[in-house]
Amino acid sequence: MALTWFIRRPEPVEAPAPDPWPETGETWTPEGVTVIERYYNLGHAVVLVYRSTGYHVVACLGCHHQTTRRTSTYGTLLTLEQAAELANTHAARCRALPREIPARPDEATAREQLRTLVHGLRNRDENVSLYLFHLDLHRLVLQRTNEWITAELMRLADAEPEVLKVSVNEWGTNFRLQRLPES
Q1: Which residues of 4-75 form beta strands (DSSP E)?
Q2: Which of 68, 129, 132, 164 is the most buried (most CB within 10 A)?
Q3: How would you class 47 by CB atoms within 10 Å of its CB: exposed for 0-12, middle for 13-18, buried for 19 or more?
Q4: CA torsion, ordered 69, 148, 157, 52, to nearest 10 deg
Q5: Is the pLDDT of residue 49 over 70?
Q6: Residue-level pLDDT at 5
Q7: Residue 154: which pLDDT band, with cuts at 50, 70 and 90?
């Protein structure tokens, strides 16, 4: 009996709940996106660093600034360190006021948004490969997983083969945007 007084047994520990955002009092984790860091700009809007397909995105929820690259048109995709640096630089300059957290769209709306994005990415000169990272900038609007997006792209390819072609090989699923028709 005396030995049981000296045995230490740890109390069961539950996983901590995520901290709510101070400005909204709620937690927000959009589906298909892993939020890694949050910065506050001069107007207290949130600047996010998130990852969805292995690359990092910087997105301001105040002024809607978003980037996946170091330069505006060309350049390498962002590493975490580069994304953190860009987010911090943007937060230090941006004066946008906070906006509401984007609501998750329903299935029909998300499907139409994806369809619109795919149509907008088409090129007049040539067929272009479509990769999931091309949609990373739009993840806060879509708020869907890679699996959902892949399934919807396959559905779109069946419905509109003049817009999108799909092929499956030993390396995975490939999507090809068909060039715009001659006018």
Answers
A1: 34-40, 46-51, 56-60, 66-67
A2: 164
A3: buried
A4: 10
A5: yes
A6: 60
A7: very high
